[in-house]
Write a structure and sequence with these properties.
Elements lengths: L2 H23 L2 H17 L3 H14 L4 H13 L3 H14 L4 H13 L3 H14 L4 H13 L3 H14 L5 H12 L3 H14 L5 H12 L3 H14 L5 H12 L3 H14 L4 H4 L1 H8 L3 H14 L4 H13 L3 H14 L4 H13 L3 H14 L4 H13 L3 H14 L5 H13 L2 H14 L4 H13 L3 H14 L4 H13 L3 H14 L4 H13 L3 H14 L4 H13 L4 H14 L4 H13 L3 H14 L4 H13 L3 H14 L4 H13 L4 H14 L4 H13 L3 H17 L6 H13 L3 H14 L6 H12 L1
Helix pairs in contact: 2-3, 3-4, 4-5, 5-6, 6-7, 6-8, 7-8, 8-9, 9-10, 10-11, 11-12, 12-13, 12-14, 13-14, 14-15, 15-17, 17-18, 18-19, 19-20, 19-21, 20-21, 21-22, 21-23, 22-23, 23-24, 24-25, 25-26, 26-27, 27-28, 27-29, 28-29, 29-30, 29-31, 30-31, 31-32, 31-33, 32-33, 33-34, 33-35, 34-35, ...
């Protein structure tokens, strides 16, 4: 070979090598592996969002890359995005059906998401393929426990223990189930067995400590938490448990000092530096919590959980613009972030954009039907829009998806209170007791339902339990007052209400009860004196002036005194809509209808979503026979609460007065009737619509139902119903019945607004 030929060969080598390496860089298997390995490195460093990007890139190259799907699922779990993790684990199982460990993970996540049918499918297969795997029996146990089959769950754990007697995990799960079945001694023994089998694990010590704490064995609890700290001094979790113990012991300052130290000791650990802000939130110090999370956001702007927690606090402080700005940043980078979408809906609710909020939340629940927070918030939006029936449905769904959530049960209890539904109230209260057995709230609410049902013995037991678990809380004593009031033991009721006020000088419920006790005994001046005494103790309590104004208005008939008290209530709290509504009523009662209208118009500037201002304003316009303004007012009310029965009823009535569209009036009257089925007024309006449409038989049936309701609720006889029924009898050629009803009208009120027409009809009936 010549020198020239060799030179050509040397020149070709780099060219060949270049082509070879270029070919390798285009190889999809090499590229996906690089992304995968890069994702793993990010994952190990705790940079989970960066890891997500790399694993996704690997999957884009090879959608059947099972390991990448699985690792992406693990990363989503670290980011607390269980729905995304669930989807990725499901994809992994599809690609690797023999990967039983992933099936177990998938089944456990299905259980957490309450997708029981999917979990059952996986556990059935696992039991068939791996009947001797203790991890499979633990998963089956978890499924049975989630379905409330606790005895079956314990049986499965015992199978796992028999298969692996030296593994600690089954004993740990067994202890938790024994706690749920009130086998406290057995649970303690199981926790100790866990520690014996795995002495270097912190979690068993923490859970055993929590067990001791729940049984007021505080020194033993503290010992367990210190043991956990000694085992793993680099973990903030045992210190968080110790802070919770201090709080339970009433050592709030010690808990705060401990968590400040945790923040200093763990400046780069999110689980550590967030604890202080969470402590402030838990103890109700929202100002400190907001300031703390504001500082954390500045120090850790990439910590998404800090950002989201800060947004929630800003929402609580009604700092909507700041919350919106931060939340929009999240949605810009991840438009499908369901938490951020829920925050957006909360901002929309606070801004009065209820339809937008409902649309946002319906999209979230459509894409993630198991998102309990979205269902709960959708219930709030629907409730504010006046659709309580659908709101309750969403709250029930939220509670079904997450039986450990307290807020849906509280909302269901509140809705039951508003409707006077004692059975639903008792059910919701029972769930609150299950979730918070050491809180007086559930016992007090259940006692209230029992008082209303005249189950006084059961109410007394629940009230005493409420007082036992929280002797310094006013809840139990308020309900004791309610019980004694219902039993007409007024002296005992007054003592209980006064005790509640001594514990909580700002308890409006306690003062209301005390004043009602005096009013029931016709000691009105004592009621007024009680209000003034409490105002002297808490001079800035708007609710107390509201109560004083109510008694002066409705009982004492002192319109000037009531007006002054309610003006003070409104001055102290511009959002006290109850006081403002009564203030307008008093002004109207004094003959100042235009002043009352002006009060409601001004009140709407501060409370633009308060439909009742529009409703009462509409009634005032009706009194002036200004049908156009009345119509506008009721339509505005329905724009806020589309299903409001009072606004619907009144608008239907105005439409009948002003020759409006009868089909629309019928729809409105039917809405009112559904919303207030026990109201004779809604029955009368619906019957009058039927009359105007010429359906006289149906009108008569409805008017007769209205009269039965008047008798049922012991309401004053209403000349309108008799007039309308009499006219319907006229139209159906039933003169005797018509005469009977029309004569009744004049007997009730000789100066009835339609008296001339009544006399005219009576004259024609006699001729």
């Amino acid at each position: 070979m010549t020198f020239l030929a060799n030179r050509r060969l040397l020149l070709c080598v780099p060219l060949f090598a270049s082509l070879l390496f270029s070919s390798c860089s285009r190889d999809p298997n090499v590229r996906k592996q690089k992304y995968f390995e890069s994702g793993q490195r990010y994952f190990q460093k705790g940079k989970y969002r960066e890891a997500v990007i790399e694993f996704r890139n690997a999957i884009k190259i090879d959608p059947r890359f099972a390991e990448a799907h699985h690792q992406l699922a693990e990363t989503y779990l670290k980011l607390q995005q269980p729905q995304d993790a669930y989807q990725e684990l499901g994809r992994t199982v599809e690609l690797q059906p023999e990967n039983y460990q992933t099936r177990i993970e998938f089944a456990n996540l299905a259980i957490l998401g309450r997708d029981f049918s999917q979990a059952q499918e996986q556990t059935d297969l696992l039991l068939k393929q791996r009947p001797n795997d203790p991890a499979v029996h633990l998963t089956v146990s978890a499924l049975l426990a989630a379905q409330q089959n606790l005895s079956g769950a314990i049986d499965e754990i015992n199978k796992a223990i028999a298969l692996a007697p030296n593994r600690w995990e089954p004993y740990f799960q067994l202890a938790l189930l024994q706690l749920r079945t009130n086998q406290t001694d057995a649970a303690e023994a199981s926790f100790k067995k866990v520690i014996e089998l795995n002495p270097t694990a912190t979690q068993p010590h923490i859970v055993l400590g929590a067990f001791y704490q729940s049984h007021n064995r505080f020194s033993e609890a503290e010992q367990q938490f210190h043991s956990a700290m000694d085992i793993d001094p680099k973990s903030p979790e045992p210190r968080a448990a110790l802070a919770r113990l201090y709080l339970a012991e009433g050592k709030k300052a010690e808990a705060e000092d401990l968590l400040k130290q945790v923040k200093r000791d763990f400046p780069d650990n999110p689980e550590g530096y967030r604890l202080l802000g969470d402590f402030y939130f838990t103890t109700g110090d929202i100002d400190k919590a907001t300031a703390e999370y504001g500082a954390l956001y500045q120090a850790h702007p990439t910590d998404m959980q800090v950002k989201k927690n800060y947004i929630q606090l800003l929402l609580q402080k009604n700092r909507l613009d700041e919350a919106r700005k931060l939340n929009d940043e999240i949605l810009k980078s991840n438009p499908g972030d369901n938490e951020a979408l829920v925050y957006r809906s909360q901002i929309q609710i606070s801004s009065g954009s209820l339809n937008d909020a409902i649309a946002t939340l319906q999209n979230v629940t459509k894409n993630g039907p198991n998102n309990s927070e979205a269902h709960y918030t959708l219930g709030i939006a629907l409730d504010k829009s006046g659709d309580l029936e659908r709101a309750e449905s969403e709250w029930r769904e939220a509670a079904r998806l997450r039986p450990d959530l307290l807020d849906p049960e509280r909302s269901l209890a509140g809705a039951a209170l508003r409707r006077g539904d004692t059975s639903t109230l008792a059910e919701a209260a029972g769930q609150i007791i299950r979730l918070r057995p050491n809180s007086p709230e559930g016992y007090s609410l259940r006692a209230l339902s029992e008082i209303n049902s005249k189950q006084f013995t059961a109410a007394d037991a629940d009230i005493r339990k409420a007082i036992e678990v929280a002797p310094q809380n006013s809840f139990g004593y308020v309900q004791m007052g309610n019980l004694k009031f219902a039993q007409k033991q007024y002296s005992e009721a007054a003592k209980a209400y006064q005790h509640a006020l001594d514990l909580n000088a700002n308890s409006k419920d306690a003062l209301r009860g005390l004043m009602n006790t005096y009013v029931a005994q016709k000691q009105v001046d004592k009621a007024i004196a009680a209000a003034n005494a409490q105002i002297a103790r808490s001079p800035n309590n708007s609710g107390f002036y509201d109560l004083l104004g109510s008694v002066l208005f409705h009982v004492k008939k002192d319109l000037n005194g009531a007006e002054a008290a309610l003006e003070k209530a409104a001055e102290l709290d511009k959002n006290n809509s109850d006081a403002l509504l009564k203030l307008g009523e008093i002004q109207a009662a004094k003959g100042s209808v235009d002043q009352a209208i002006a009060t409601y118009q001004q009140s709407l500037k501060e409370n633009p979503r308060e439909a009742n201002f529009y409703i009462l304003m509409g009634e005032l316009y009706e009194s002036k026979r200004d049908w156009k303004q009345a119509t506008d007012a009721y339509q505005n009310a329905l724009g806020i609460k589309s299903q409001d029965p009072v606004a619907s009823n009144n608008l239907a009535r105005v439409m009948l007065q002003s020759a409006g569209n009868l089909d629309i009036a019928l729809s409105l009257a039917q809405t009112a009737r559904r919303g207030l089925p026990d109201s004779p007024l809604t029955a009368d309006t619906l019957g009058w619509v039927y009359y105007q449409k010429g359906n006289y038989k149906l009108a008569i049936d409805t008017f007769q139902e209205a009269l039965k309701l008047v008798e049922k609720i012991n309401a004053p006889d209403d000349p309108n119903i008799h007039y309308h029924l009499g006219m319907a009898y006229v139209r159906t050629d039933q003169p005797a019945l018509a005469r009977q009803q029309l004569e009744r009208v004049l007997k009730i009120n000789p100066n009835y607004s339609e008296a001339a027409e009544v006399r005219k009809q009576l004259a024609q009936l006699k001729s």
